[in-house]
Design brief:
It is a single chain. The chain has one domain. Helix 2 runs antiparallel to helix 5. The chain starts with 5 loop residues before the first helix and ends in a 14-residue tail after the last helix. With about 240 residues, the protein is mainly α.
């Protein structure tokens, strides 16, 4: 199986961390620190409960799918699931950054134009790559000849639901819109863009040509193709 493992998730964690100070879970500034901590723990416990419940469902669905797969299909499904997770994480990141940019612009009129333009350029680069990988996801599922494509899609939807419900349990996200945080967000776009592009371009899809194709070497110029005529003992070219 191609590596989309721990390095990929470290990579994704770094991406999210690059704009972390801006998008945070809802703050309760008017409440004492102890009350805020208690609420945060309750939210974390609720999210953990959701993840635990879905973990069992996903485990059962994984087992059911695996029973109908041959070895190649099992490997393909593992890679498709990993790639699906990458795409989903970047889509969430894209949505959250777009929301933060809008709120920062609303709160800081003098920064609105610059932030909107920078995010637009970021999105113009990232969105087509996401769209291409979403198409590759569908093509890879089809070409893997799974016994039941509907079950494969339902399996991915289950994983998607688990992440979405866990996110909901954590509570509403609030954006910090101080000028400093918003400037940090705009700067983070410069750092995250090449990272996202590299990650999306590096995704390998089963059944769609996994190996990186070597570009054929350029044909040598016509002059260099001609063999040098042998020299005679006197150093003169043979006729």
């Amino acid at each position: 199986m191609k590596k989309t493992g721990i390095l990929t998730f470290v990579f994704l964690a770094a991406l999210f961390a690059s704009y972390g100070p801006v998008a945070v879970y809802a703050e309760e500034k008017d409440k004492p620190a102890a009350a805020v901590a208690e609420n945060e723990k309750a939210a974390e416990d609720a999210a953990a409960k959701v993840r635990s419940d879905y973990k069992e469902k996903i485990k059962a669905a994984t087992s059911e799918l695996g029973e109908s797969f041959n070895e190649e299909q099992t490997v393909n499904m593992g890679r498709i699931r990993g790639n699906f997770g990458i795409i989903r994480a970047i889509k969430i990141m894209k949505h959250d950054i777009g929301d933060a940019v809008k709120r920062c612009g609303d709160a800081n009129a003098d920064m609105e134009d610059a932030m909107t333009k920078r995010f637009s350029a970021w999105d113009k680069t990232v969105a087509p790559l996401l769209k291409e990988d979403e198409k590759n996801l569908e093509d890879s599922i089809k070409k893997s000849s799974f016994p039941d494509e509907k079950k494969v899609r339902a399996y991915l939807s289950l994983i998607d639901d688990a992440a979405e419900e866990s996110d909901k349990a954590l509570g509403e996200k609030q954006v910090i819109t101080t000028p400093e945080s918003c400037q940090y967000l705009m700067t983070s776009l410069d750092k995250s863009e090449p990272m996202v592009v590299s990650l999306l371009n590096g995704i390998k899809w089963p059944m769609l040509g996994d190996a990186v194709e070597e570009k054929p070497a350029a044909e040598p110029a016509e002059e260099t193709k001609k063999e040098e005529k042998p020299e005679d003992k006197n150093g003169d070219k043979a006729e």
